[in-house]
Amino acid sequence: MVLGAVRRRMSDAPGRRRVVVVGSSHETRALAARLADEFDVTFVSDRRDVLAGARAEGVDARHDTLDRESELPSWDLAADAAVVATDRDKTNMLVAQQLKTLRGVRDIVVRVNDPDREGAFAGLDVATVCGSDTLTPQVSATLEEAI
Against a cut of 0.70, is the pTM above it? Predict the structure, then answer.
């Protein structure tokens, strides 16, 4: 819990970039917690159990449905950048559009789950990261060393 208190104090420091991390997994919660060491992070999820873990680590965490009824566009949420990384490409597309057009977030990194859908994000002016593209070189290198 001490770590959480340190993160909260650091997030109050002036000049820190504000980053919104949107996700539904413990992996994304862990990403938000690690980014909180360098940025003022707000974590948004549709899963209350994942939010509880983020709060326990001292990360500002908010619940949202992450669908068409989302309240995210109406929040008083000032962000310099965002990471949108749910396990659903459709949700990632919707949230990225909301953050870009309705909240004015300029720098957005979006997780693409299905490599065949990466082109669908081209018109959004966002950076994309595909898990299989990112993991394949590391897994391949690890297998080469092991075999």
Answer: yes
